[in-house]
Amino acid sequence: MTSIHDEIKTLSEQLKQQRDEIRVKLELAKLDARDEWEELEEHWEHFSSKMAHLGKEAGKEVEDAGKEISEAAKELGQKIKTRYENLKDKL
Predict the structure, then answer these.
(1) CA angle 53, 57, 63 (to 5 degrees)
(2) Rounded percentage of the chain residues whose pLDDT exceeds 90
(3) What backbone torsions phi and psi does residue 2 show, to the nearest 5 degrees?
(4) Domain containing 58: what range?
(5) Cβ contacts of residue 51 below 8 Å, gap of 6+?
(6) Are 46 and 37 in contact (CB under 8 A)?
(7) d(CA 57, CA 54)
(8) DSSP letter (8 states) at residue 60
(9) Could you read off the pLDDT of 65-77 as tens digits, one per residue?
(10) For residue 10, what are the CA distances in angstroms to 1, 21, 23, 25, 29?
(11) Is 36 inside any structural domain?
(12) Coiled-coil intervals in this record (predicted)?
């Protein structure tokens, strides 16, 4: 027959193990989030560049190219937005 002391000791050991496992998972999640953030920063730079180019092209006679750039920038912006939201949910 186990005593209350033994039950509490077992519970304490289980809690410590769970705590350690969670700590490791949190550290790994931080690394994953950091990696994803760095990748998103590259996408942001690309998006910003497209937006700057679009602004320059607005006054020129390259309407078709402007529309194509606009659509690509919009699509890229939506992808970045979705990934930012996913990353925020992970944190």
Answers:
(1) 125
(2) 5
(3) -90, 145
(4) 29-90
(5) 73
(6) no
(7) 5
(8) S
(9) 667 777 777 788 8
(10) 14, 17, 20, 23, 29
(11) yes
(12) 1-32
